[in-house]
Amino acid sequence: GGNSDEKQDSACEKCDFETALCKALHESNVQPGWMRRNGQSDMGPPYSDHNGNDSAYFLSLSSEMPSSSATLRTNVFLPTDEEHVCQITFHYWISQTSGTLIVGLQKHSEDTITNIWQDSGELQNQWKASTIIIHSTEKYEVIFWGMVETQRQDETVAIDDITFSEGC
Fold first, then answer.
1. How many independent structural domains does the chain possess?
2. d(CA 94, CA 99)
3. pLDDT tier at 86, thresholds 50, 70, 90
4. Which of 94, 21, 91, 16 is nearest to 55 (CA)?
5. Tens digit of each residue's pLDDT (9 = 90 or more) over 136-161
6. Where is 6: in which H helix or E strand?
7. How many Cβ atoms from other residues are within 10 Å of residue 82's Cβ?
8. Chain segment 90-106, per-residue pLDDT in tens
9. How confident is the model at residue 28 (pLDDT cuts 50, 70, 90)?
10. How far apart are CA 106 and CA 138, in angstroms?
11. One cellular component GO annotation, for this chain's record (predicted)?
12. Is residue 81 assigned to a domain?
């Protein structure tokens, strides 16, 4: 009666990876290579999540894994309009030299993925935050694509706390 449950449903969807994936990301949409881990896992950087918590979880793609490239695909989102814009905020880590993270958009009627955001390692080795705003007149999916281009130890791409606004 107080509409409190409806307000929670309209809030942002957050993937913090603490227990599993959120509703926007399902296990079948995560390619092998991404590992859910924390800073205590003894697998090289990052040694904590973006808040500095070494026991908090995030997704990581390591150069030591057989697959040095992997995607993370969202469920299908409905078209956006002027009132309902999809805003995605996330934290990411790209190690020193050879990591790249690309975010792409795949419209339902197209086979191609359009890159809408990208960052590469340039002596970064730190968590950064980014926000992407998506306008689409048709159903779409968002794809996070991580790549580590060398087999050197401690080269990593990681992603943490993906938040999808109400318009997604």
1. 1
2. 5
3. very high
4. 16
5. 999 999 999 998 876 666 778 999 99
6. helix 4-9
7. 7
8. 999 988 767 899 999 99
9. confident
10. 10
11. membrane
12. yes
Instruction: For residue 71, give the CATH number of its domain.
Output: 2.60.120.200
Residue numbers of the domain that contains 155: 13-164
- Which residue, among 122, 75, 85, 74, has the nearest Cα to 101 in the 3D structure? 122
Between these two residues, 40 and 63, which has the higher pLDDT value?
40
Tell me which residue has tokens 């990411």: 92
- Strand pairing category for 156-164 and 57-62: antiparallel
Q: What is the pLDDT of residue 63?
A: 65
Domain assignment present for residue 22? The answer is: yes
- Helices then strands, each counted (H, E), the chain: 1, 10
Cβ distance 45 to 93 under 8 Å? yes
Peptide bond into 46 cis (omega under 30): yes
CA 72/CA 138 separation, integer angstroms: 20
Tokens representing residue 163 in the block: 């938040």
- Sequence-separated (6 or more) residues with CB below 8 Å from residue 149: 68, 98, 99, 100
| CA 48/CA 51 separation, integer angstroms | 7
Any domain includes 3: no
| CA gap 158, 133 in Å, rounded | 21
